[in-house]
Amino acid sequence: xxxxxxxxxxxxxxxxxxxxxxxxxxxxxxxxxxxxxxxxxxxxxxxxxxxxxxxxxxxxxxxxxxxxxxxxxxxxxxxxxxxxxxxxxxxxxxxxxxxxxxxxxxxxxxxxxxxxxxxxxxxxxxxxxxxxxxxxxxxxxxxxxxxxxxxxxxxxxxxxxxxxxxxxxxxxxxxxxxxxxxxxxxxxxxxxxxxxxxxxxxxxxxxxxxxxxxxxxxxxxxxxxxxxxxxxxxxxxxxxxxxxxxxxxxxxxxxxxxxxxxxxxxxxxx
Length: 270
Ligand SMILES: Nc1ncnc2c1ncn2[C@@H]1O[C@H](COP(=O)(O)OP(=O)(O)O)[C@@H](O)[C@H]1O
Ligand SMILES: Cc1ncc(COP(=O)(O)OP(=O)(O)O)c(N)n1
Fold this sequence. Notes:
The protein has about 270 residues and is α/β, with parallel strands linked by helices.
């Protein structure tokens, strides 16, 4: 069997809980070979983002070209893209390589409030990148921005998913981590025809730094292994659930999730 190859195009998180670091750990844990194209270096820990140093669009494109031409890519995810220039360069490379298993995590604002996507880049994200996506995974504030509406109820979420799908993306998962606290964390998946409610136990913890990155990276790893999107999303939910449940209690703020929890639990079942 050939080695599944997964590429992340995202920012570096020095604290290791989100961004490139979360993605590569997740790829590794799920059995995909991880590669990266770094878009920006962030100065970050569990207390928040203290600095953002973007790379040039050319530097991002060259990294994608280097790995795409030599190692090959079975699935790719995008995370923090920061500027319209970088989004355009990334879209151009995805198109030129003809990559189809494309997961777009439309990272906009970190939990602490730092801007990880410039306001003037949202239009490029909608027009250039979403049409190339197999699946897009906004959280509620990101879905509000993409759909141009407020989301309060599950009905609002369904309407937002329909609007986001109109940009040409095949599947939309609106994540529920930011929904008002209930006993369940509920994500809503729209596949172009039907809606599926994906519910799990909501864990009471402040250690949820990098949940969105980890979730989308898990989907990407499963797609790289050849699994269909619904199965990839199902595994990603189990993966993030375990990672939050067994969080590591690191740092003085919102700490990282536990990227090896899912694998350890599976091992203990064998
Ligand atoms: N406290 C929690 N308990 C269980 N699952 C959670 C919790 N917070 C987030 N999740 C899950 O983690 C994933 C990421 O969601 P979310 O936190 O909304 O993304 P983001 O990090 O992009 O803001 C989703 O599958 C969501 O349901
Ligand atoms: C470099 C970098 N990329 C993305 C994020 C946002 O990650 P996310 O999974 O949405 O987690 P929070 O920031 O909301 O904890 C980031 N912080 N840094």
